Amino acid sequence: MYATPPARTRVAIFERRDPQKNLLAGQLPAALIQQRLLYVIRRGVLGALLPPDELASAFFQARPGVQHIEVVVTREMLSPTTARIERRERLYEYDRRSARAR
Asked: Is the pTM of this model over 0.90?
């Protein structure tokens, strides 16, 4: 029997302007930072069952000039087969018109 470290979930939001991406971590309003934190907590429990659609929609409302964003959800967890920390990333792409993942 052994103890495992808690799985860590992180969310990064990038503004995408071809061909570059800009990380928007320090440029978010306080309400959106709070919503991102709540999403991270809920995503840690529900996993892939909870896509960041609401977070993307709130982001588009807070930043009216942004047309395309990418939300990267990273989860680090202990692998039961290798006993090493594994990192899994999932990319969600959104545009203002649909506010749904592509």
From this structure: no
